[in-house]
Prior knowledge:
Chain A is α/β, with parallel strands linked by helices. Chain A folds into 2 domains: 2-62, Alpha-Beta Plaits (2-Layer Sandwich); 82-335, Aldolase class I (TIM Barrel). Chain A has 11 helices and 14 strands. Chain A has helices spanning 11-23, 49-53, 107-119, 143-156, 168-174, 191-197, 214-226, 252-261, 270-274, 280-290, 316-335, and strands at residues 2-5, 27-32, 37-42, 58-62, 82-83, 89-90, 96-100, 124-126, 160-164, 180-183, 204-207, 232-236, 266-268, 294-298. In chain A, helix 3 packs parallel to helix 4 (143-156). The longest helix of chain A is centred in the last third of the chain and has 20 residues, at 316-335. Chain A is elongated and about 65 Å long. The two termini of chain A are 34 Å apart. The model of chain A has no long low-confidence stretch (mean pLDDT 95). Chains in contact: A-B, A-C, A-D, B-C, B-D, C-D. At the A-B interface, helix 8, helix 10 and helix 11 of A face helix 8, helix 10 and helix 11 of B.
Amino acid sequence: MIIQLEQNITASQLEKLREKLQEIQYRSTRVSTQFGDYIIGVGKKEFDIRAIGALPGIRDIHRVSDDYKLVSKKWRVEDTVIELEEGIRIGTGHFALMAGPCSIESEEQVEKTIRHLAANGVRIMRGGVYKPRSSPYSFRGLGIDGLKLWHAKAREAGIRIITEVMMVEQIKPMIPYVDIFQVGARNAQNFNLLDALGEVGKPVLLKRGISGTIDELLQAAEYIFSNGNERIMLCERGIRTFETAYRNTMDINAIAMLKDKTHLPVIADPSHGIGLRRYVDKVALASVMAGADGIIMEVHEQPEKAFSDGQQTLGFSEAERLYRQLRLAFELREGF
Amino acid sequence: MIIQLEQNITASQLEKLREKLQEIQYRSTRVSTQFGDYIIGVGKKEFDIRAIGALPGIRDIHRVSDDYKLVSKKWRVEDTVIELEEGIRIGTGHFALMAGPCSIESEEQVEKTIRHLAANGVRIMRGGVYKPRSSPYSFRGLGIDGLKLWHAKAREAGIRIITEVMMVEQIKPMIPYVDIFQVGARNAQNFNLLDALGEVGKPVLLKRGISGTIDELLQAAEYIFSNGNERIMLCERGIRTFETAYRNTMDINAIAMLKDKTHLPVIADPSHGIGLRRYVDKVALASVMAGADGIIMEVHEQPEKAFSDGQQTLGFSEAERLYRQLRLAFELREGF
Amino acid sequence: MIIQLEQNITASQLEKLREKLQEIQYRSTRVSTQFGDYIIGVGKKEFDIRAIGALPGIRDIHRVSDDYKLVSKKWRVEDTVIELEEGIRIGTGHFALMAGPCSIESEEQVEKTIRHLAANGVRIMRGGVYKPRSSPYSFRGLGIDGLKLWHAKAREAGIRIITEVMMVEQIKPMIPYVDIFQVGARNAQNFNLLDALGEVGKPVLLKRGISGTIDELLQAAEYIFSNGNERIMLCERGIRTFETAYRNTMDINAIAMLKDKTHLPVIADPSHGIGLRRYVDKVALASVMAGADGIIMEVHEQPEKAFSDGQQTLGFSEAERLYRQLRLAFELREGF
Amino acid sequence: MIIQLEQNITASQLEKLREKLQEIQYRSTRVSTQFGDYIIGVGKKEFDIRAIGALPGIRDIHRVSDDYKLVSKKWRVEDTVIELEEGIRIGTGHFALMAGPCSIESEEQVEKTIRHLAANGVRIMRGGVYKPRSSPYSFRGLGIDGLKLWHAKAREAGIRIITEVMMVEQIKPMIPYVDIFQVGARNAQNFNLLDALGEVGKPVLLKRGISGTIDELLQAAEYIFSNGNERIMLCERGIRTFETAYRNTMDINAIAMLKDKTHLPVIADPSHGIGLRRYVDKVALASVMAGADGIIMEVHEQPEKAFSDGQQTLGFSEAERLYRQLRLAFELREGF
Lengths: 336, 336, 336, 336
């Protein structure tokens, strides 16, 4: 169950509520976010929802039988829309484009990418400064210095920054330079990192694990929410299956289902989703029709010269064509 | 390699070609279809393509290094468009809708479905009379009598029939009543059935196996083509993955890739693809954006009363809305 | 439910039973095998098992709530042991070794293999004469002539034959020359083939589908049993997973579980299970410890020269060493 | 390539080596562990191995073309054997048993478990004090206090401790109380954690990711080794496949292959591997025959009352029987 508390609930009212929950043998967790105060109750017994809901200091109470609670659509009338500065909105009814290189490489690369994005009305730039790499001998990104350089250029152009964070220690130094923290697929169940991001006042984009279920993704989001941060988006980025013709198997089913199960925005990553440049456009368009609230994709002036091998990265002109198509597909879908 | 023969190639010219192939140690297979004559050569040595191509009696010669040959896009300038009677076309540039119940159940059901399809301009009706069932104790369909009844009603209304064939012995009796033979996912590598369908003058819709790779699907189609039948469409119907939130995981990546690898039409089956009625529309729309040439889907006047449990079946009004949306999505895509 | 009938049950007693089942709304199927007569009842209502069991003409009645019935362990006190001629037994308490080449290639190859098997006390020889091949341009086996040649040599040496059957039409001509019919992974849900093998008086080894579940395998076996043939063994031969380091992923969990769920013998195929010669021995030994009643494996005098590429085939001396180890492992396990 | 350095290599000799590597365009990484000094070179060009090997200050040089280097078997003559205090050895030729509860719950539970282990000659005890849980509302373990309590009891009895570490910050406080650090499946690609464990003087047991490939597991181990810690064991604990009959699919193929690819010890976790108590014994025995150097398993005095639901946990008497069987299976295997 989810109990929404009044802001001015008193200590004795709270105590009374706790007793009531103990009576019915529900374990309770207090959650305070930037937008509200909640008690999450977990238990198995039947209970009289009105008796609890009528207690003083309680705004509302909701039954949510899923393993995830606060991220469920069952208790929220309206879908979450995340607002960034300057009127950028992410969530139902809005369409978010995020694009940029796999890795931040150089000042020149950043400038060229920003020019490309600005010319195309793309207001959120992706890029890695901390790169999770299978091999310890691979390039691991430019780190905080790369981020600062990037941030300075992006701010000038009114472009927002989304980038991956890999460990708790990185969060604090990154905060001034990041608009959206990204959690990568390999950290989808790094619960300590999720906890820590719950205490941060910035939105988080949470990627589905390489073989993560829908349910696991939603519970991972619950970690962030229950630690205090309601500004979460989920990202489908392809799963691991028996099929080796593509790098990953983009699971558009997940997009359709997530939009039904949670009030959080759902973003699709076609670049990693199929992992083959040639098909990124089709997979991106399919994702929009399946219900995605936005697309995050890799672009590079010269994909074949990117630090990453660029096999899943679009060139600027391909990307331009795709932005237009995606916006049209979004408009068509919204008209349905 | 694929060698296209002139219709009037002489026996001695053919003999000469064979010798040439033996010289370079290529095993050769003669293929005659309703549309052409071919020699398929399989070997590893380098060869002079012009020397062979210049031989008399040869129209053209193509290198195709894939394991599949005749179904590859590498040698065909234009995509295959399959024509049914009355101007129905399936393939690139056309959009095919096929709808109907899981199983043919009764005359009344057939009539109602036909009325629904006719009113919506859907000209191909699906339905099972031989049903592959996991349990031997389940209903296995009305068989040939059901098919005859269905056929009579459909012909009156100008509706074409697609239905599954499960074994070689069923083909011959079914021929007069079937417009498209469907091969189900469980028979995707039933090579004897594929061989036999190669000798039939009717189009075949070949479903991907439950864990079939793209390559296996194309090689299965090669069985049909190389036995004489060029009129094949491929069908993505969801694969088996670790995710159990849906019955199958619709793999729209396969649609995007198949349209690139083969000249054959590609159809999407969202009903089995995700297997949950609530999401069939989104998955169908996504499939169109990924490049599908058509959609095959389950509809029933009363899904919850269908012989199958109907969990993946749309009601008539849901279906009507979806037909319209699919046609719009197709138009948008063609405009790109 | 499974109702075992007395041999001399009268038509009127049978009628009475049928009425009783209709009363409780159970659909019933009559099954007659080489060893018994049964009625399988499928329904959902609660019923009084004693009331039905006490009817005249009934030997016994069992509740079996699984989707599969006759192959379930829930109603059989003793595991099935399949007897071949000359005292060969397959099933709990016995250990069966089956070995031979991927494909039957020549008289010389058959003779050498038989000598090898006889010298090592291996009494069942495997080999393909009808080969399921992904590509239509690959060698599909020597067919019935190869089988006859093989059979003549094997009979002289007292060696029994197991070989794959791929289509219903092949069964009848094969019967005189086959001791165990094998159904391959690709035909694991070829229900017509399973039906037909239910009417044959020879044992059947049924392989698990490439992505077949335990439940599907048992239901496939139920097809054979319910059509009249109780002499079935199941075979784990590796499944398709995300891991591409091996050809298939041998699933020894399935062996452990199948021995618990069914009374049928369970055979392991390490050659296909992992598909890499180097590891066949370890996988075979692991399969025995997991509970396998026997091992079917590929051996060839010169694996690297086999028709198949032989990558999963042991040479004679490797095989000899493994036979000994497997027998020791079996003895150890039986002692537990 | 791996270059083993002499302990007394001089700065100028090192400089010379670096130049040589730059000449052939190899990126180099210096690695210093508790046992040796190495330079890892990564590049693509052909090089003269003897020319480099003959340089002063170099003990040996090895070509290792795998993505992982130091953990590869290609350069090490002998398998790694990890020694704990009091003569406990883990690795080829030795058999390690590790057992204990899912979670450390209470002093009484710890005492009972220790008595059980001591009585059966099991010298390493597993148990969780930091538990990775899908839901933020679940019990997350007793933490460092639980570990201290456990450590005090274990030391008295001469029992060693293996327990999971989930984040970098936990490592330092845990060091005095832990004998083997365990990295869980969800952290199998938490590269920062792996880096940090490379700097620790304690052995690490690294679990395979839920859908981690063999190659990813070995590269994860390379992270630890290349940061300075050679004392690593790998652990197969079941993978995620389409099969839902078990919680995970124990992949004994991985055990066989890992023993061939790496010199590190390989441990099997049958409890999580299949996740069903009823089959843990068979899976454990199979793992030994596949080549495992040890077994880590869950035992609890009253499995059904464990904090975890105990569905994969053996009771003491089941466990006792299994220890004996495992030791016999190990002896048999070593005799082969």
